[in-house]
Each structure stands twice: as structure tokens, then as C-alpha cells.
Specification:
mainly beta; 7-stranded antiparallel sheet; 12% helix; globular; 11 strands; Pnp Oxidase, Chain A; 4 helices; two-stranded antiparallel sheet; single chain
């Protein structure tokens, strides 16, 4: 492992999402983003930081123009799609068959048959350094029917990808509920 300093982009684990927007010509644009968190509301928000490195990325341009986005939980089946939509990993000549549909509440692209996605409206933007952070209020939560039938949000069934520096992982075993270890 490389040495970690106080100015390193040091993070441990992140949950990546595929952020969906429309380009100015109306074509769907997706980008894998892993600098994401949530706020408790009201309104509840997705918090998305996009690193620009001194230049606005197309996703940021689209968000700032339209004020809306979709965020799809990245699952292992979507990794090829995600990597083809990442400027650092996309390869020439690779054909993907992933389809998308229009949002149910907002004008955003949604990946067809995704397990879990959000339709969000940006309500606050904070630029800092080479990053811009967007606070995007949830306007619609889309969950696949088989997951709605579960007794709780079982991450083993959703199987979200977890990102640690330059590596992908998935969720392991269920350890219990909050409070199961209190007083033990």
C-alpha cells in the first residue's frame, strides 16, 4: 500500500452509483460515481461529489443545466456498463446492450431492470477545491418488485458493489440488527 498522508485522497469504502443525466441533445449519459452519501431530511438527499480536476465533467454540466439526476445502485451485473461509462476504463469497440427508460417522476434516464434507483432533484450545490458537491432531494425511489417483498432491506439480495481504492467487493453475511450487540 502506498503511504497515506494528510493530503491523500484517503477513503476506506464507498458505495458506487451510476448517475444518469441527459446530454443537451437528449441522449442518455451515465457515469459511475463513488463519492456519495445521504442526509436525513426533510428533505432526505443524496449527496454527490464530482471531482473535476479543473474541468467540469459532462455529468456535472448536465446536472447544473437540468437540476435532476438518477442514481442507480451499482450491482455486479452492471459493472461492464459502469466501466464502459468511466473515461478511465472504457474500451474502444465494446458493445453493450443495457437499456434504459425514462424516469417515473422526473425527466431522467433509468437503467431498465435495475434493482434500486433514485430520481433526484438538486436543491443545493457546494463547490470546494476541484470538487462540486450536489445535494439532491429524493423525488422517487424505484425498487424492483422482488426486493419489495423482503422483510427488510437485505443487502445480500441487492448485492451492491462496494468500492475500496481500485478494487470492487460485494456484501458478505448478515450480522444482525442494531441493538443485537448492546450489553453483550
Amino acid at each position: 500500500m502506498e503511504p497515506i498522508t494528510e493530503n491523500s485522497m484517503c477513503f476506506f469504502t464507498q458505495q458506487p452509483f451510476l448517475i444518469g443525466t441527459y446530454d443537451s441533445d437528449g441522449s442518455a449519459h451515465f457515469a459511475p460515481i463513488s463519492w456519495i452519501s445521504f442526509t436525513a431530511g426533510p428533505p432526505c438527499c443524496l449527496v454527490i461529489s464530482i471531482y473535476g480536476g479543473g474541468q467540469k465533467k459532462q455529468t456535472a454540466v448536465n446536472i447544473e443545466r437540468d437540476g435532476v439526476l438518477s442514481a442507480t445502485v451499482l450491482t455486479p451485473d452492471l459493472l461492464p456498463f459502469a466501466e464502459q461509462h468511466n473515461l478511465a476504463t472504457q474500451r474502444e469497440g465494446v458493445a453493450l446492450t443495457q437499456t434504459f427508460e425514462s424516469g417515473r417522476k422526473l425527466c431522467v434516464p433509468l437503467l431498465t431492470d435495475a434493482k434500486w434507483s433514485y430520481e433526484c432533484e438538486v436543491i443545493h450545490t457546494v463547490p470546494i477545491g476541484n470538487c462540486t458537491t450536489y445535494f439532491a432531494a429524493f423525488r422517487q425511489v424505484n425498487v424492483r418488485e422482488d426486493l419489495l417483498a423482503l422483510d427488510f432491506v437485505d443487502l445480500r439480495a441487492i448485492n451492491p458493489v462496494i468500492y475500496g481504492p481500485n478494487h470492487y467487493f460485494t456484501v458478505g453475511e448478515h450480522l444482525g440488527e442494531i441493538g443485537d450487540y448492546a450489553g453483550k
